[in-house]
Design goal:
- The protein contains eight helices and 24 strands.
- The protein is α/β, with parallel strands linked by helices and 508 residues long.
- Among the domains are: 167 residues, Leucine-rich repeat, LRR (right-handed beta-alpha superhelix), CATH 3.80.10; 140 residues, no CATH class.
- The strands form four sheets. It has an 18-stranded parallel beta sheet. Strands 1-2 form a two-stranded antiparallel sheet.
- Helix 6 packs parallel to helix 8.
- Keywords: Plant defense.
C-alpha cells in the first residue's frame, strides 16, 4: 500500500482483498507456494533467483538484498528497493547513504540473540533517502529512531518488529503522510506519545505484544480521524472511564470520533467500562471485532490459549461481575459476534438476544444460569461449538421437547465441565433429529450426570423396555453418526454401558 500500487481502491478492506486475489493468482501459476500458515507464502528457490536477477537490473530501478559487502555511501543512487539483512551491532554504516530514488527500505538483524547489544545507526542515515515510502525494521536494537527519521516526509508505512531495545517513537509524529504504523514485539516502548495524534492520515494503527506499554495519552485516538483499523493487543489495556475528568490515559469514548473505523481489536482491563454508553461507528458491526474485557489482573482467556480464536472474523471475550449493567454498545457488538466467551454472573444480560451469526459460545463461572435455553434466548442456527464450564446451578442444556431448537443442527463440538447439578444432556428425539453433525463430545467433572440421554414421553415404549446399555449405545450411534471423539471423566454416577460403545469413539 505504501508504494501506491492500489491507488484506485478506497479502503484497507479492498486493498487486502485485492492482495489476496493477486497472491492466489501467483499460486495458480506456481510462482508462489503455500507457507507455514494462511498468513505466509513461500517462493521456490529457482523462482526467487530469477526474480532477484530481474529486479536487480539497474534499468528496472534496482534491488539489493542480503548485503554481504561493506555498506557504501554512494553506490545505491539508482536503486528503488533495498533490503539490508544480516545486520548486527558490528555492521559499519557510512555517515550517510545516498539513495535519492529509494522507495522501500528493509533493515533486518541477522542474529536474534543480540537483544542486549545495542546497534549503532548513524544519526544521518536517512538523510539521503527522503523519497522512501516504506520502512521495515526487524530486530534493529536501537533505543530511539535516528533524528533524520523526521526527514522521511513521504513515508507512508512504518513497520517496527521485534525492536526490543526501542524506547521512544515520538519522532514518528513528524511523519504526517504516514498511513500505516505497526509496532510488534517492541517490549521497551512504555508510552504512546501525544505526537502520534498528529498523524491524521493514519489508516492502520497496530500495537501487538508491546507488553510494557502502559500509557496512551488522552486525545491521541480521537485525533486519528481517518483510522480504519485499530489493533492494540497484549499491550496497553488501561482504557479509562469517560467520567474520569482527571484521567491520564485514553478512554473508550474517544472511539466515537473514528467514523471510518471498520476493525477494532482491544483488551480492556476495566470492567466498569462495560456499563458506559459509547456510540461506536455504525460500520464497525459488520466488520472485524476482537474485544477482551476482563477484571484487573485476571488471566481469564487470552487468544493464544484457544485454537478457535483466529478462525473467526469477529470475537468477544467478556468477564462481567454480577450486578453490573451492560452498556448497549456491548450488546450491539455481541449481536454481530461469531466467537463469544462469557464469564461471570453478569453474563446473563448478554445471553438474552444472542444472534444468528454466533458460531462459538463459551459460558463459564455464571451461577445464575439454570437453563441454557429459555423463552427469552434466541436460536443459534450457525452454532458450531458450545462450551459450558463451572456453572454451579445448570440443570438443563437441551429441553426434553424442543420445538424450535433445530437451530443446533450445525453443532460439531460440545464440551461440558464442572456442572454439578446437571443430570442429563439430551433427549433421544432431539439427539436423533438435530445433532447429526456432532463430532466431539466431552463431559468432565459433572458428578450428578447419570446418562447422556433422557427419554421423552414420545419415545417408543418398546425401546424403553430394552436394557439400559443397549438402548443408549444404540441411540448414540443413530443420533450422532459423525461422532469421532467421546471424552468422559469424573462422572461417578454415569450408568452408560461402556462395553457397548465402539472403541474408536471412547477416549478417556
Amino acid at each position: 500500500m505504501g508504494l501506491g500500487m492500489f491507488q484506485r481502491l478506497r479502503n484497507l478492506d479492498e486493498i487486502r482483498n485485492r492482495t489476496y486475489t493477486l497472491i492466489e493468482e501467483l499460486k495458480s501459476q506456481s510462482l508462489l507456494l503455500d507457507g507455514s500458515n494462511e498468513h505466509c507464502v513461500q517462493m521456490h528457490d529457482v523462482v526467487r533467483d530469477i526474480a532477484l536477477y530481474i529486479a536487480s537490473e539497474e534499468k528496472r530501478g534496482g534491488f539489493v538484498i542480503n548485503l554481504d559487502q561493506p555498506i557504501r555511501e554512494d553506490c545505491y543512487e539508482n536503486y528503488v528497493w533495498i533490503s539490508m539483512t544480516n545486520l548486527s551491532n558490528k555492521t559499519e554504516f557510512p555517515v550517510e547513504i545516498k539513495c535519492p530514488s529509494l522507495r522501500l527500505l528493509t533493515m533486518k538483524s541477522g542474529n536474534k540473540k543480540l537483544y542486549d547489544d545495542e546497534m549503532r545507526l548513524p544519526d544521518r542515515i536517512f538523510d539521503g533517502m527522503q523519497e522512501v515510502r516504506v520502512l521495515f525494521m526487524e530486530e534493529i536494537h536501537i533505543r530511539s529512531l535516528p533524528s533524520t527519521t523526521q526527514l522521511l516526509k513521504n513515508l507512508k508505512t512504518l513497520y517496527l518488529f521485534n525492536c526490543q531495545v526501542l524506547e521512544s517513537i515520538g519522532i514518528v509524529g513528524e511523519l504526517l503522510k504516514l498511513e500505516i504504523l505497526c509496532c510488534i514485539d517492541c517490549y521497551n516502548i512504555r508510552a504512546l506519545p501525544r505526537e502520534i495524534g498528529r498523524l491524521n492520515r493514519l489508516m492502520l494503527l497496530e500495537i501487538i505484544h508491546c507488553r510494557n506499554l502502559k500509557r496512551i495519552a488522552p486525545g491521541i485516538t480521537s485525533n486519528l480521524i481517518n483510522l480504519e483499523e485499530l489493533k492494540i493487543k497484549c499491550s496497553f489495556n488501561g482504557w479509562e472511564a469517560k467520567k474520569n475528568n482527571a484521567r491520564e490515559n485514553a478512554a473508550l469514548v474517544e472511539l466515537e470520533s473514528l467514523t471510518k473505523l471498520r476493525c477494532l481489536e482491544l483488551e480492556i482491563n476495566n470492567v466498569s467500562s462495560v456499563a458506559e454508553e459509547i456510540r461506536l461507528p455504525s460500520g464497525i458491526v459488520n466488520h472485524s471485532i476482537s474485544l477482551i474485557i476482563k477484571e484487573r489482573d485476571s488471566y481469564f482467556f487470552m487468544q493464544e490459549r484457544d485454537s478457535l480464536w483466529d478462525h473467526y472474523f469477529s470475537k468477544m471475550c467478556l468477564e462481567i461481575p454480577g450486578q453490573m449493567n451492560v452498556g448497549n454498545w456491548i450488546k450491539t457488538l455481541v449481536r454481530f459476534t461469531e466467537f463469544l466467551d462469557l464469564k461471570g454472573d453478569g453474563a446473563t444480560e448478554v445471553l438474552v438476544g444472542l444472534n444468528w451469526n454466533l458460531k462459538s459460545l463459551t459460558l463459564r463461572s455464571c451461577s445464575l444460569v439454570k437453563k441454557l435455553l429459555n423463552t427469552s434466548t434466541s436460536a443459534f442456527p450457525s452454532l458450531e461449538s458450545l462450551t459450558l464450564a463451572y456453572l454451579d446451578n445448570l440443570v438443563e442444556i437441551f429441553p426434553p421437547k424442543p420445538d424450535k431448537y433445530s437451530c443446533f443442527k450445525n453443532l460439531r463440538t460440545i464440551s461440558i465441565e464442572g456442572c454439578p447439578r446437571l443430570r442429563f444432556l439430551f433427549s433421544v428425539s432431539e439427539a436423533i433429529m438435530f445433532l447429526t453433525q456432532l463430532q466431539d463430545l466431552t463431559v468432565i467433572d459433572c458428578e450428578a450426570v447419570e446418562d447422556m440421554i433422557i427419554f421423552s414421553d414420545d419415545d417408543d415404549d418398546d425401546d424403553k423396555m430394552e436394557k439400559d446399555g443397549e438402548i443408549r449405545s444404540h441411540n448414540l450411534r443413530i443420533g450422532f453418526p459423525k461422532l469421532s471423539c467421546l471424552k468422559l471423566a469424573g462422572l461417578p454416577r454415569l450408568i452408560l454401558a461402556q462395553e457397548t460403545l465402539s472403541k474408536e469413539i471412547l477416549c478417556f
